[in-house]
């Protein structure tokens, strides 16, 4: 049944352009004879269109997008998670015949009521599942829509680990963009989101499997309800936790420690500075702010590609009388030894700058840079690829804390300090990580 519904939508979509061309052609002919005939050529009312999948959104098409009937933009948005909120969670992921059931029998009537009160209904769903399962899922949505024949809604589904996946706000940003095109600015205080991944704890019972929905509502800035609160009118469940990294949990520490010695030698003299730390802890930006102005040579393996080239580049610079910063992760003593031995041989002092942030912070920064920059920044800068998790877990697995007896004259610790505008800080401070990751 769903297959038929889908293929009829697909054939309509395919045929439409040709149909329009011939309609226009005959319309222009008829118009010359009598304008009355134009009326008969109007397309059928859009309100009669049933559910259809539209063009997926995003650079890789990872955000599925569909509409039931013809949903209108409204300042007030009623947003709902799907699984475990509108319909029962389907944990049997392998069934090929789409099956579904309302979360509670009162859900469709409530959705009808919400629609009639003037809200735009939007479903916001994470569907990071295997392609076969996703295919079956795509067939299920028109069936749910058929059971809501007078409730227009829009649905977004994030199918990859990217900027669309809750708790990241990509699906909301798309909604804002689409509504803005219709001249509607959403009033968040008059809108809300309902989801079951709320981090609820229960004495003697299993907690919610995640808190992703509550985090998403916090990120977007929407009032949040659980399905029990919204559909059943139960009182708010106040015993919940939001696990995982959040920027507000970072202790306030001085940027560079100790501060008793200067950041750069005073007066300047030739040296090697070796950075140590996870990717995405601001090492390159620290170089640009503090060492480039003093003409230190930048040695970076992402740019030079191999360690041999990094060592060679360092040697040439030192023989040329220049100072160098080795801007790599330099995770263990054996990696650092290449540069320490070189510095010793050329009788140049070497210091270590340890970027102390945790793997959670580094991964958070990675997600922020790749997926969650504010539009004011992402519209101007080239997009950055996500650094794979293995680069972080690999560092953690092989890490040895740097020690003076490796040959350093000093070890300084650089604590993470966010540098950027208020707008950037707002986006950086959001919940970005998926629970349990
Ligand atoms: Mg859910």
UniProtKB/TrEMBL annotation:
Region (Disordered): 1-29
Coiled coil ranges: none
One record GO biological process: DNA repair
Residues spanning the membrane: none
UniProt feature, compositional bias: Polar residues: 1-12
GO molecular function annotation: ATP-dependent polydeoxyribonucleotide 5'-hydroxyl-kinase activity; double-stranded DNA binding; polynucleotide 3'-phosphatase activity
Keywords: Kinase, Transferase
PANTHER family found in the cross-reference section: BIFUNCTIONAL POLYNUCLEOTIDE PHOSPHATASE/KINASE (PTHR12083), BIFUNCTIONAL POLYNUCLEOTIDE PHOSPHATASE_KINASE (PTHR12083:SF9)
Name assigned to this protein: Polynucleotide kinase 3 phosphatase-domain-containing protein
């Amino acid at each position: 049944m769903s297959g038929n519904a889908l293929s009829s939508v697909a054939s309509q979509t395919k045929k439409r352009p040709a149909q329009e061309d011939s309609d226009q052609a005959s319309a222009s002919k008829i118009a010359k004879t009598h304008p009355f005939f134009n009326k008969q050529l109007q397309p059928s009312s859009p309100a009669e269109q049933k559910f259809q999948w539209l063009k997926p959104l995003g650079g890789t098409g990872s955000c599925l997008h569909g509409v039931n009937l013809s949903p209108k933009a409204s300042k007030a948005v009623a947003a709902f998670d799907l699984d475990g909120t509108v319909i029962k969670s389907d944990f049997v992921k392998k069934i090929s015949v789409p099956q579904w059931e309302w979360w509670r029998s009162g859900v469709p009537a409530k959705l009808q009521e919400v629609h009639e009160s003037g809200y735009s209904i939007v479903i916001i769903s994470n569907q990071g599942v295997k392609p076969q399962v996703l295919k079956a899922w795509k067939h299920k949505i028109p069936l749910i829509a058929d059971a809501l024949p007078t409730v227009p809604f829009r649905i977004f589904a994030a199918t990859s680990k990217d900027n669309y996946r809750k708790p990241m706000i990509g699906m909301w940003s798309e909604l804002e963009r689409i509504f803005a095109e219709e001249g509607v600015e959403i009033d968040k205080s008059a809108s809300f989101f309902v989801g079951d991944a709320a981090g609820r704890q229960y004495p003697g019972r299993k907690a919610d499997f995640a808190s992703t929905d509550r985090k998403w509502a916090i990120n977007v800035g929407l009032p949040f309800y659980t399905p029990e609160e919204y559909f059943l009118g139960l009182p708010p469940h106040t015993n919940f936790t939001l696990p995982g990294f959040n920027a507000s949990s970072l202790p306030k520490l001085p940027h560079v420690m100790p501060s008793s010695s200067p950041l750069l030698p005073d007066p300047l003299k030739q040296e090697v500075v070796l950075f140590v730390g996870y990717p995405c802890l601001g090492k390159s930006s620290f170089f640009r702010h503090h060492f480039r102005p003093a003409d230190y040579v930048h040695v970076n393996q992402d740019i030079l590609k191999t360690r041999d080239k990094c060592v060679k580049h360092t040697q040439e610079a030192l023989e040329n009388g220049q100072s160098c910063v080795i801007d790599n992760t330099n995770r263990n003593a054996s990696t650092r030894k290449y540069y320490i031995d070189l510095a010793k041989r050329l009788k140049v002092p070497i210091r270590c700058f340890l970027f102390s942030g945790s793997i959670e912070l580094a991964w958070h920064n990675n997600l922020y840079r790749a997926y969650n920059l504010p539009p004011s920044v992402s519209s101007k800068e080239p997009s950055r690829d996500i650094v794979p998790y293995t680069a972080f877990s690999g560092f953690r697995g092989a890490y040895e804390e740097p020690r003076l007896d490796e040959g350093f004259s000093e070890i300084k610790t650089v604590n993470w300090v966010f540098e950027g505008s208020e707008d950037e800080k707002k986006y950086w401070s959001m919940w970005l990580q998926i629970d349990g990751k």
